[in-house]
Design goal:
4-stranded parallel sheet; Aconitase, domain 3; alpha/beta; 5-stranded parallel sheet; binds FE3-S4 cluster; 387 residues; Aconitase, Domain 2
Length: 387
């Protein structure tokens, strides 16, 4: 793998042990995946931020690093809202360990915004190369923005953040971004809500696995694309999808639509994902809510009180910019938390059945929270919470 003179100096330890270690991680990844060189990145998003995930040894390793990130970098959601962990019922010992992890990342210059929607809190542009780790953020960046990132692991994303570069392979290369399976829906007009797109993604992900699907005949707005991609990344391993004439690369005049096979998904298969089981909590914001989704929820909850715990998750930056909507939501008794989410927070582990409006959460809640999951539209979540 070709290294520039500066990169060779890093590799030889001339910029210290941490830089050497980080460069070695990137070179190791590059060799495994056949990268010919490293390329500069515009930003990074680092996973492995929850103490639950990295544990004592991961924390010690982080604390030993002596470096500063070279590009704007944020963290994946952690196990608690940093300013409201007591109210979430998080044990103090967990909160202290979690804060130690966050502080270790902060010392490296990482912005302490813990979110799977980094694209709401900083500009991400078409064609930019990134090193993002969280699967829903990756699929959104590639598909909806047209930026380019592989599904990075925690160490790879951190190394890329510190070096400011990533190995040039996989989805960084245009030739690897073409669709290789077509998906149609028998009744696209029936898809109206993010939850319905999430349920479609839940079904589609199992069919496409790690291939690059090209959807035709649907016209989802950005928030629905977010739900679709997040679910496919969870039930499959989708890191990029196209929607014909909607997503940026599928609008290029040179876009190649030839796919070896096309699968039709029936809306009755999508509807089967919905159920009406009794739940004891509701959680929305997987992925973290957009400003428009916060507004919509505020409108749905206006003048109502929730009778069940109602968790809402969004990025700190989005919460800060949308104080009125957040206040309106909280007036109902629902709670809007930053930094964390339904899947990574131990606060949700105490419930037996959780209602979500996300295909990704539907896939992960049973294993990660040990609860039965039910998916419903945002309207249905509000109706169940307020009846
Ligand atoms: Fe984000 Fe957590 Fe869902 S990281 S995509 S809210 S599982």
């Amino acid at each position: 793998m070709y290294l520039e003179p500066e990169e060779e100096k890093m590799q030889n330890g001339e910029y210290g042990e941490t830089m050497q270690q980080m460069l070695e991680i990137l070179v190791g990844l590059g060799k495994v995946f056949g990268a010919e060189k490293l390329i500069p990145i515009a930003s990074a998003q680092v996973s492995g931020a929850s103490y639950k995930t990295i544990g004592k040894w991961g924390l010690e390793w982080l604390q030993g690093l002596d470096a500063h990130v070279a590009v704007p970098t944020v963290l994946n959601p952690i196990g608690m809202a940093r300013d409201r962990w007591k109210e979430m019922g998080i044990p103090e010992v967990f909160a202290q360990q979690q804060e130690a992890v966050v502080a270790a990342y902060g010392r490296l210059g990482i912005k302490l915004e813990c979110t799977c929607t980094p694209y709401y809190v900083s500009q991400t542009q078409y064609g930019e190369h990134l090193a993002w780790a969280e699967s829903s953020a990756v699929v959104y960046a590639n598909s909806v923005i047209g930026a380019r990132t592989n599904r990075e692991g925690g160490p790879g994303a951190l190394a890329a953040a510190i070096v400011g570069k990533t190995p040039y392979y996989g989805l960084h290369l245009f030739k690897n971004r073409l669709p290789n399976i077509g998906i149609t829906v028998d009744d696209p007009a029936a898809l109206k809500d993010a939850a319905e797109y999430g349920a479609l993604g839940y079904v589609a992900g199992k069919i496409v696995g790690n291939r690059i699907p090209l959807f035709s005949g649907i016209r989802p707005p950005r928030d629905h694309l977010k739900a679709l991609g997040a679910a496919m990344a969870a039930t499959g391993a989708v890191a990029l999808f196209h929607v014909d004439r909607i997503t940026p690369e599928a609008r290029l005049p040179t876009f190649k639509r030839d796919v070896p096979e096309t699968v039709e998904i029936r809306m009755d298969e999508v509807q089967e994902v919905f159920s009406s089981i009794e739940v004891d909590a509701i959680a929305v914001g997987c992925p973290h809510l957009s400003p428009a989704e916060l507004d919509n929820l505020a409108g749905l909850l206006a003048g109502k009180k929730v009778n069940k715990p109602f968790f809402v998750f969004a990025a700190q930056g989005v919460i800060a910019e949308n104080r009125d909507a957040v206040a309106a939501i909280e007036k109902s008794g629902a709670r809007v938390y930053a930094d964390t989410c339904v899947v990574v927070s131990p606060a949700l582990d105490r419930y037996d059945a959780i209602m979500v409006n996300s295909g990704k959460a539907l896939a992960y809640v049973p294993t990660m929270c040990g609860a039965v999951a039910r998916i419903g539209t945002m309207e249905e979540c509000v109706a169940v919470a307020t009846m």
